[in-house]
Design brief:
With 422 residues, this protein is α/β, with parallel strands linked by helices. The protein is built from 16 helices and 14 strands.
Length: 422
């Protein structure tokens, strides 16, 4: 493919602060600047939190622009529907005008709506879909699995970011193994300033009004029930002073409920469990690296849906040891007893035991942090990730593959295409 032909069309729901959206805000500018791709991004919402970095890189963004009075008249659900319709017709027009541009769908809503437009216009160009979470959501939407399974047959490739998602596509949705490509999320190299974690910890202790010996725990995840905040609160409520070496603790909870009201439920739950005064609800943060650098232990405790979390890579890149549940790609990011601990989902006692293990073994905390930083640098760099996407898009008959250095025997024996380090 010649440079002039490197044109890419991305469809995604919105550019709010979420895992997929953050991922796109990192990889698309590099595809433009380093590989010369011309990229058009189509949204089905006017949520544009992450748009500035993309616009600065030259990515063209198209989104519904509804007047405020129409939004007030239609309400939240009506506005969502109208945005989807407007986005659909805008995509139809572009599909009719540009018949050769590669099209890549991210997330289920953009996939289904965008493919309806592709079918209506008989779009001949190569089409790719990214599945970035487990398929639990299909059980809550009537006909979703049947529709997506049919649409999968029309994709040139289906890209995933964890082995668990690969297994679901092949075993549950009938996707041919040679159509699936695994590309792990990537992260840019962290500035050297974050290596001075003692400095950030001191600043965080002061900002939170804590005693110097306080354990600082952190979880970065939007406030959604399946993210497992209740399980984490329950585990923390089980800790005794002996479990933490006689030291107090504080949990920093970063994330938003997007107006669902779930944040209030979690606050009430924390109070009911007797830990309400030990949790700081920090809401949405523009950056979390300083918070990671000042914390002692990080958590991600989902019980379903999870694909491969950017938050885990960010924490490990800072040198933060992690405790995660064995859901989605968590155990692919966090190497058990090497960069952190992996526990069963929805098991607060196991989670509490893991916390106790780290609090009573400070050497583990230091060793896991160092190993986590090295793991991100060697396996999950942004350059590796973007190079993999470029390889997929420019491939005509085959895709370069390379097995992960620590792949399981099952992965090494599989025919699944994987690009994790090219």
């Amino acid at each position: 493919m010649r440079l002039a032909e490197r044109q890419l069309r991305i469809l995604v729901n919105d550019l709010g602060v979420g895992g997929t959206e953050t991922h796109l805000s990192r990889i698309l500018p590099v595809l433009v600047k380093q590989y010369g791709w011309k990229i058009k991004l189509f949204l089905f919402s006017d949520q544009l939190d992450l748009a500035p970095a993309l616009l600065d890189a030259g990515v063209k963004i198209y989104y519904p622009k509804l007047p405020a009075w129409i939004k007030r008249l239609c309400g939240q659900k009506g506005t969502r529907l109208l945005n989807t319709l407007v986005g659909f017709f805008r995509v139809v027009i572009d599909f009719c005008v540009d018949r050769t541009c590669i099209t890549h769908f991210f997330l289920a809503r953009a996939y289904i709506v965008g493919m309806c437009a592709a079918i209506v216009t008989r779009l001949p160009a190569d089409k790719y879909m990214s599945r970035r979470s487990l398929n639990d959501y299909q059980h809550t939407v009537f006909g979703a699995r049947r529709i997506e399974t049919w649409l999968h047959t029309k994709m040139r490739r289906i890209l995933v970011n964890s082995q668990r998602i690969t297994d679901q596509l092949v075993e549950n949705e009938g996707v041919s193994p040679d159509k699936v490509i695994k590309i792990y999320n990537g992260l840019q190299e962290m500035p050297a300033c974050y290596q001075d974690r003692a400095l950030y910890r001191e600043a965080l202790i002061k900002a939170q009004g804590l005693s110097p010996d306080t354990w600082i725990f952190i979880t970065v995840a939007n406030l959604i029930p399946y993210k497992g905040h209740v399980d984490l609160l329950s585990a923390l409520s089980q800790l005794t002073p002996e479990d933490t070496g006689g030291r107090p603790w504080r949990l920093l909870c970063v994330g938003t409920d997007a107006g669902s009201g779930y944040a209030a439920e979690l606050r009430q739950q924390a109070v009911a469990l007797g830990v309400g005064d030990k949790v700081s609800w920090l809401g949405k943060q523009s950056t979390v690296f300083a918070l990671y650098a000042g914390s002692d232990i990080g958590f991600l405790c989902p019980y379903r849906n999870e694909g491969f979390s950017n938050a885990l890579l960010e924490g490990m890149a800072i040198g933060l040891p992690l405790i995660v549940t064995d859901v989605g790609g968590n155990a692919e990011a966090v190497a058990h007893r090497e960069t952190g601990l992996v526990v069963p989902a929805q098991n607060p006692p196991a989670l509490a035991a893991a916390i106790t293990t780290l609090c009573q073994n400070p050497d583990f905390i230091k060793a896991y942090g160092v190993a986590g930083r090295e793991r991100v640098q060697s396996r999950f760099s942004l350059s590796q990730c973007v190079s993999a996407y470029h390889t997929v898009y420019t491939s005509t008959s085959s895709v370069a593959t390379q097995s992960s250095v620590d792949a399981t025997p099952q992965e090494r024996e599989s025919n699944i295409m994987e690009i994790s380090d090219v």
